[in-house]
Amino acid sequence: MSYAKEDLTQMLQEYSADPVPNPDRSREAAAQGRRMLRLRRARRAGAAATVASASVIAGVLITNGSDDGGVSPVPEIRQVSVRLPMDIQLPGAANGVVNRTLPLAESRYESQLGRKVTISFTPLSHNTMSNVRCADPRAWVLVRTDSPGMPTSVGRCGSGDHLAQFDADSAGDIWVGRPHTWQVWVLPADTKVTKDLDPNRIDKVAAEAGVEPGAWAVGIYDEKPR
């Protein structure tokens, strides 16, 4: 027979108030008390098992992958996005000499450092500009062009726009209207790079640097088609 908590409380009160205790009632009250105690312990054990299971699941997600089964703290994840501006000012516009902007004509968005990216475009003017933006301003930017006047551009990405522009002499007489293909690398900041890097060695340097996560983008800006 089972009793509700209120019945058991009343039973205990009657037992304590009765100068001549009833043996059957006292044994029944003691048995019911033990059953309630076992039930309460079982519930606590079940709750503890649930918490332990959740901890194991979390541990699987953050284990460091080592053989010793250690658990590493969850690293802070920062989602860094890189976006190119839709237009940029011509260099003279900064000093108020020319109030003109160039729209974005071609672009590539990447999520890895160390991979070669090819970008093709057909210049519509001698004002064509390139721009590279990186999540890591210390990353190296290497551009291999098809122009004899400037076959390679090497430098740190910087915190803003990494701009480059050919003048008429560097671009050559057949710059406008001719399809061009450039190869662009953005390499990790600790890559061993020199400013006078031979264009023919870029592939080797990039291969030695390897591939790792890192957001960056390259864009070509030019006059609007008429």
Please describe what this structure looks like:
With 226 residues, this protein is an alpha+beta fold. It has 2 domains: 5-62, no CATH class; 87-221, Sandwich (Jelly Rolls). 29% of the residues lie in helices and 26% in strands. The protein has helices at 5-17, 23-62, 168-171, 202-209, and strands spanning 87-89, 101-113, 117-121, 129-134, 140-144, 152-156, 162-165, 180-187, 212-221. A hairpin with a 7-residue loop joins β5 and β6. It is elongated, with a radius of gyration of 36 Å.
Uncertain regions spanning at least 5 consecutive residues: 48-79
Number of helical segments with 4 or more residues: 4
- Any guess at the CATH architecture of the largest domain? Sandwich
Strands of the largest sheet, in order across it?
Answer: 1-2-9-4-7
